[in-house]
């Protein structure tokens, strides 16, 4: 009868246990020196060797011919424990024997001396499933046990164990097994079983096992059943996974906000037999790697999953930012956790991809922060990569009143004769004063010549400009430059986006401040030209806008 690989290759000695030398060395020394405790508590994730070490310890303390703390596995006691026929060593399941009556029965029979072995050993797996009343019933015998009695408790959820139990046990924490250790064990098992396991296949299986050697052996068993060579491609096809290349392509489409291409890629993976949950899990792992690489580029390499090469991660990092990566990782985790209750897993995955491509569909604060970050990046990169926008609209007049028709204008006065100057005649009282593009005739003359050019006015008045402008426009003044030429303030903007914002939101304020400073009516005109780049930190006003960013629209965004 065929036996699963993880059962056939279960370690029989402490030296066979992989990746837990800090525990096996201590237990072997305690057995060889006879300094054994009456109660042990093994904690850790699944597949790391808790139950295996419990059985080895039970054999070692009862072995007739121990070898340096290890059981001989040849005497009647060792063989009886392996087969389960020795009644002095009893392995119980905490989920099935969790009631107070079960613990009372165990306590009543534990006081009797062992029939065949040296010690009576009780191995209770998943002990956190025992009820509080059962734990209380176990306390007395656990605190003052007979000399022949030993308890070995194992659990994956340490926080559920009462403190009264923890204080009476020697605790050993089993850590996740490193991928390189799992890979070496898989290669050893495959060579003994005649399985053609390639290095890339062993590496992929060791990463998929997530630190559990039992899971790795079970996956190897499944992949070897298909026959032939077990390489990375066969592992992906057998287990229904997408693979790092296809997952990276899907992530690139999401980061570029190409929802159509992302949905098409998901459709191809789905029709190719890939499992929806596995695809989203791989996207979540990749998003986590991007976040770690962006936030800790120097010391974070050891924290990466190892599923993707450095060139791929660096290329994707140039398309992402930390705020969006956090949003993507959280959304993927929430979607994966809800797939178990979903009526249509594919629809949930498609909705998730749409929200990943467009944060505005989510409506969360994290999505708003990502949108602000994208806007800041677009503003800072605008001088080097201007956004396409329609031509700027003609500049409106300073006073939004249409000029009078040509037929309605009063006739210009004739040239006065030579001689003493005559006083100017004001307009007739029954006719309104004409509206002209320049200064009206009855206004005082400007302080200097009409063609004087003041290029330093902008620097002198920049503080007044910002105090008069709305908060959303202040940062854009750093990407503009103004020059007063006669009665015209010519504002040169770095790009079309700056021109669009200032022209719609700042024209009136710029005209008012400049007119007050010049002592005459000034018109404002906008154009696009070369402007020195804004100093670092000039976007501070824009960062604090928050929800006010929705009050205006930037063309081309």
Q: Are there runs of 5+ residues with pLDDT below 50, and where?
A: 398-410, 412-451, 534-557
Mean pLDDT: 79
Enter the CATH topology name of the largest domain: Rossmann fold
- The separation of the N and C termini measures 66 Å
What portion of residues belong to β-strands? 5-15%
Choose one word for the global shape. elongated
Count the helices. How many?
Answer: 23
Give the strand tally.
9
Q: How would a textbook summarize the main sheet? A: 5 strands, parallel
CATH classification class of the largest domain:
Alpha Beta
CATH superfamily of the largest domain: P-loop containing nucleotide triphosphate hydrolases
How are the elements arranged and paired?
Layout: H1 5-8, H2 21-33, E1 39-44, H3 50-62, H4 76-83, E2 89-93, H5 100-110, E3 120-125, H6 132-143, E4 149-155, H7 163-166, E5 170-174, H8 179-193, H9 199-208, H10 213-224, H11 232-239, H12 244-255, H13 259-271, H14 276-295, H15 310-317, H16 322-337, H17 345-357, H18 365-380, E6 453-454, H19 457-468, H20 471-474, E7 480-485, E8 488-493, H21 496-505, H22 507-518, E9 523-528, H23 540-543
Parallel strand pairs: 1-4, 1-5, 2-3, 3-4, 8-9
Antiparallel strand pairs: 6-7, 7-8
Helix pairs in contact: 2-3, 3-4, 5-6, 8-9, 8-10, 9-10, 9-11, 12-13, 12-14, 13-17, 14-15, 14-16, 16-17, 16-18, 19-22
